[in-house]
Structure formats: C-alpha cells, structure tokens
Amino acid sequence: MERLEGMVTDIVFHNEENGYTIARLSNGDGDFTAVGCMPTLSIGETVELEGKWGRHRLYGEQFEAEKFIPVIPTSVEGIRVYLASGMVKGIGEKMANRIIEKFGVETLDVIQNTPDRLLEVEGIGRKKIEQIKKSYSEDRELRNIIIEMSPYGISPNQCLRIYKRYRSNALKLIAENPYRLAEDIRGIGFKTADNIARKMGIDMNSEDRIEQGILFVLRNALMEGHTYLPESEVEKEAMDLMNIDMERVDNCLLSLAYDQKIKLENTKEGIAVYLMNYFLAETSVCNKLVELSVFEFTKDKNIDISDKINEVEKAENIKLADNQRQAVKEAVNGGVTVITGGPGTGKTTTINTIIKIFRGMKKEVALAAPTGRAAKRMTETTGEESKTIHRLLEMGYSTDDELVFFRNEEEPIKADVIIVDEASMIDILLMNSLLSAIKPGTKLIIVGDSDQLPSVGAGNVLGDIIDSGVIKTVRLNEIFRQAEQSMIVVNAHKINKGERPVLNRKGKDFFFLNGETPQKIMDTVVGLVEKRLPEFYKVDGLRDIQILSPMRKGDVGVNNMNTVLQSCLNPPGERKAEAVFNKRTFRVGDKVMQIKNNYTKSWKTEDEKDSGEGIYNGDIGYIYYIDKNKKLIYVIFDESKIVEYSYEEMDEIEHSFCTTIHKSQGSEFPVVVIPISWAPPMLLSRNLLYTAITRAKKLVVLVGDTRYLDMMIKNNRVNARYSMLSERLGVLKEEGVII
Ligand SMILES: Nc1ncnc2c1ncn2[C@@H]1O[C@H](COP(=O)(O)OP(=O)(O)OP(=O)(O)O)[C@@H](O)[C@H]1O
C-alpha cells in the first residue's frame, strides 16, 4: 500500500450515489489522476491517499485509492480554498479572505480552539461565531464518518443519516455494536451491518448479531406481506442466514421477547413470532373493529330508512338493486359495514346514496382513501371532499423525524360517519392508526374490492375482515347495464370467476395481440404506443397509455421496457438536459413515478399562486427541468404541481413509461397495455391480471401468448400471507363478544 498527498485541482467524474470519483491532483512531483470511492472530495482540498498505482486501458497511469484522508490545510492558500469553498456555513469567499488576513496560517486553529477571537474580524458577531463553530465541527464529524464508513459501501447519504442519529458518538457506537445500524438507520440492513461487523472482527455468535439477524428475518417477512412467521420458519431462516445452530436462535428469540421487541404467541398451529408493533396492531385492529361494531346506537336505532332511500332514488333517477339497498341499510344502522364488489357493481352509487342519507340526517361524513390518487378519484365520483387516510389522521412529524398522527385515541376524528374507499390497499399498521382515531359511536363504512391485490404493506386486512364473517359485509355482484357494454368490466368479472375473457370483439374495448417471443411482444408494444393507438384512438402515447408489466426483470419486465420506451417516446434531443442516476439516464420529458410516500415534499405551481405538501407513492409526473449546476431536478405532477428533487433524492423517483402492476394499484388510466409472457409462477396469478385490467377506463390491450394468459387465469392461489386477524375476530365471536 502506497501513500500519496496532493491537492485536488479538478473533479473529472463523480457519482453521487456510490461516491466513485475520478480526480486530478497535484503535488511537488507534478500532476496525477486518482480514482476510487472519495465521496467528499472537493477542488482545492489537500488529501492523503492510500492505495496503489494502476494502469487504465485508455487513460494510462492512475492512482487507485482505497482510503483517503483530508489533510487539514496548512498553507494560507490551502486554508483560503477550504474556507471559500462554502464548506463552513456562514463563511463565503469575502469573509474567508478577511479571516485569513487576520489569522493567517493559524485560522483553522482559531476556529477550532478559540473561536471567540473571530470577533476581531469585521462583520463577525456572536451569532455568526456560533454558526461557524457548529458548521465547522459538524463538517468534520460528518467527514470522519464518511471516511470511515465508505469502504464498507455505506453511501454519503446514509452517513448523513448516521450522523443525524448518533451525532459525535457515531463511530464509537458503531465500533461497539455495528448491528445497531440495521435497527436505527433506514437503508442499512442486516447484511451490511454484518459485513461491517465481520471486518471489525466481531464474534459471529454474539447475541447482538443473532438478535439483529432474527429481526431481519421478520422484517423481510413483512415485505412479503406477513404480519408474523411461524417459529419453525424463523428458526430455519435465521440458521441459514447466520450459519448458526438452533439453540442460539431459540435463546435469542426468548431474549428479544423479554425485551418486548418481539411477541411469541401460542396458537393452535404452534408459536407465532411477531415484531411487537405488528402484534399490537393486529390485536388492536381486532378489538377496535368489535368495539365499533357492537356500539349501541340508541338514538337512531334501526330507523326505517326505506323512505329515505326511495327519496334519493327519486331525486337521482335511479333504482338501487336489492343488495345495494341492503348495503345502504346496514351502513346507516350499523357500527361497521363492509361493502365489497368488482368493477361496475355500483359501489360508488351506493356510497353516494349513503352520503345523501346521512347528510339529510345532518350527520358529519368524512371520506378517505389510502392513496392520493384514490382520494382524488373519490372526490370526483362523490362530489365531496375526500382525503388520504394520512391527511384525515393529520399526519405530521415528531421532533426526531418519526411519523405521527395528531388524530388518535385522545384526539379522535371529528365525524359521525367515516367512509373509506379502496380498502384493499390498507395494511395492518394504517388500519390500526385509522381505527385508533375513531371513537365508538362513529360509523365506519369500509368499501373495496377484495379480489384486487392485497396491500403492499403487511396484512390482508380487507380480505381477513370479510373472511372472518364477523363484521357485517354486503357483497355487490350485479354488473349494471351501462357497464355491461364494456368488455373491460365483463372480462374482469370473467377472469375473477376463472373464465377466459372475450377477446377481440369488434368495436369493443378489450383486445389481445399475439406475440410469441419477448422480442415480438416488445415490438408490438412499441408500435402500439408510438403509432397505432394514438392514430386510431386519438390518445397521447405518453400521457394516456400506461404499460403495466407483472415483473421488473426480463425482456418485457419494467426495467428493460422503460429503456426501450424511453428511447422511442422521449429520445435524446439537443435541448433536453440529462442526468445519470443508478446507471439510468433521466431526461427532460421523461415519465417518472414517485415510489414512496413523501408527505412533506412541497410543490408549487409555476405562477406560484398555489402550493402544498405531499407527493405519494405511485404518483406519475414528467421531468420538467434539470438544473445541472444546482444539482436539482424538477418534476411536474398533475399537470401543474412542480416539485424539486435534489440529486440525493432521486432514489424516490423511477421511470414509469412502464410500471409494475403492483405499483399501479389504486390508479386508473385511459388505456392499459399489458405484456403477457413467461414470468415466475407467483407473478402469473389471477389477481395480478385482474388488478391490471381493472386499471383501464377505456381500453385494454394484452400482447403476448394466450398460454400464459390461461395460466394466469387458472392460478388463483393468492400468495398466502401469515396473518391472524380473521382468526382473532372469529375467536371473539366464539366467545360471544360479538353476535
Ligand atoms: N342500481 C343501479 N341501476 C342502474 N345503474 C346503476 C346502478 N348502480 C350503479 N349503476 C351504474 O353502473 C355504473 C357503475 O356503477 P358505480 O360507478 O357505482 O360502480 P363501482 O362499483 O363504483 O365501479 P368502479 O369500481 O368500476 O368504479 C355506473 O354507470 C352507474 O351509474
């Protein structure tokens, strides 16, 4: 290993995400190039590098740095460059010159050890000194973390999170127990922590390691939708993951339970292992549902609302079907009511009738849905304001950046009736937060299609509530006349029953185009969005058509589709700025999707007349402007909301010329095109196909091989999720808590 010192004269290349940097440096012996993970390197800075000389095929000799240590500048010129670089907040170029004029080579020593002397410099007061002191020490602490952690593959962004969490104790705490990173820092998992621990020489049989490994197994299970895992599965997975014996796993299971991080629950099938907050959520959802549904409504008890329904029917010129009427009656009289049904079965019509009746009774009705788009649609179809569940619960952030709801047991939602739509997307934690904020006596109406894909988060809440048979449920199953003409609706119901859809009926809205190979499928899809559909249906290839793929990988998976579709729908152009993240080129005009809920992300319209907060998982927008100097990307959502993303935030955005069917849940598009080809069996499922086609309002085009279409329709094995909600509700019924 060689050591080399030099001052950075140029940054030739810098990857924001992994810190890989190519820089030109100079020292007494001349100029040279250095490459490696040096995330904080900046021009003017002097660094000491550890590494070896290598030779690049094209660029010749270069120093391959494995470690870099910023050298505190000792020359007046070095200090000037360092201070003027903006590294220390509160000191700009002019101020740097004034300070250096005063203290010369001792400048940094003064800032660090006797900062009060800065008062001697014109323009610096007490407040400024505090700012400089804070920023100087933060900068140094953060740099130390970055330097120490980069070799383990921890990104500068994650280092920032580490610093925010542990402050100046970071390196000490990590050295004591690197596994705490997996618990405390978003984006760092057990495997990374384990890798760090290994390099630090930590005992592979340590309890910290095994406990974190077990929590990792349980968190992974959440991502597959399970609220718990049977003990035998936890044991097996933990043993495989950590290469340890069962006794150690069992001991650590007990100590985690003792520390209340997990819950071990005895069930008929054996021991169920829950992460504690999921256990609490599941039990409290169950209790709360029962509490709300057994509430004695003395005042309006069983009032006959037939007359009221008749009035609405008359006013709206409709005639409700029998089960719609029944749904309205249950909803008006009961505590908790579930209304479920496929597309076009009259859910919205039923909701609207319920709202009108409650309004007539002078009741306060609150409407909500789990996503921003679903809430917006609910507003459109009911003509009443609907909020996201998060907004209804008045979400905010605590002082340590944790998500909190200001509507809860102590401050419940002020409404007599709450109607939530698209309930299939509600996971167990969100349901728990919602129910906690509903006071007994408030009526809850849960509306959704239980045949859609279950929520992204853990649990199978809607399905479980319905299956339990404990909560009043009305299933709407009649497809109404207007809807019947739509083959999308007819076929959705056929698919749901396991029947083959009607394909290619002339003048209709549901087509199948053959494509035997992935390449042919791709060519057909490109032809459809580029030319055929825009010409024939007068739709915009980029805005009105959404390609939905079951999977990410493979030729017709989302990743490859996006590359191909970007090149035809938004090719490079002279005036289209570009920036590369995670090996993907983002370009002005690209269609992109926000992939996590960001409740505090602010947006404003171009004329700045309107502004607000919140961009949600699944929201689709277009890249509007890229400011390469400021490293900012602007995306426009809903044709007017402009949102600014720093380069570091680009992990919240991905291309969405094509998206996964999972990500399309809760959205609707005029035209949906779906490639149908080989995919891993768990993705060739009926409810995935059903969810995809029910996203389309005007037209569905399937492209591929009918063999796989048949496989999807036949495969109704809904990927089973471990969840005990239905059983828990059932037990309460057996015990007579609920009749
Ligand atoms: N009782 C009824 N008689 C006649 N038409 C009805 C009746 N109920 C609903 N419809 C009509 O059927 C169509 C679908 O109804 P609605 O929008 O209420 O269903 P939905 O279940 O909410 O559908 P989706 O889930 O697709 O939005 C609408 O055009 C509506 O006007």
TrEMBL record:
SUPFAM superfamilies: P-loop containing nucleoside triphosphate hydrolases, RuvA domain 2-like. InterPro entries: AAA+_ATPase (IPR003593), Coronavir_polyprotein_1ab (IPR050534), Hlx-hairpin-Hlx_DNA-bd_motif (IPR003583), P-loop_NTPase (IPR027417), RecD2 (IPR006345), RecD2-like_HHH (IPR029493), RecD2_N_OB (IPR055446), RecD2_SH13 (IPR041451). Keywords: ATP-binding, DNA-binding, Helicase, Hydrolase, Isomerase, Nucleotide-binding. The keyword Secreted does not apply. One of its GO terms (biological process) is DNA repair. GO terms for molecular function: 5'-3' DNA helicase activity; ATP binding; ATP hydrolysis activity; DNA binding; single-stranded DNA helicase activity. It holds the Pfam family SH3_13. The keyword Transferase does not apply. It is an enzyme of class 5 (isomerase). Residues 88-102, 116-135, 180-199 form the Helix-hairpin-helix DNA-binding motif class domain. Residues 333-516 form the AAA+ ATPase domain. GO terms for cellular component: exodeoxyribonuclease V complex. Its EC number is 5.6.2.3. It comes from the Bacteria. It catalyses: ATP + H2O = ADP + phosphate + H(+). ATP binds at residues 344-348. DNA-dependent ATPase and ATP-dependent 5'-3' DNA helicase. Has no activity on blunt DNA or DNA with 3'-overhangs, requires at least 10 bases of 5'-ssDNA for helicase activity. NCBIfam families: recD_rel. PANTHER family: DNA HELICASE B, DNA2/NAM7 HELICASE FAMILY MEMBER. Belongs to the RecD family. RecD2 subfamily. HAMAP family: RecD2. This is ATP-dependent RecD2 DNA helicase. It comes from Peptacetobacter hominis.
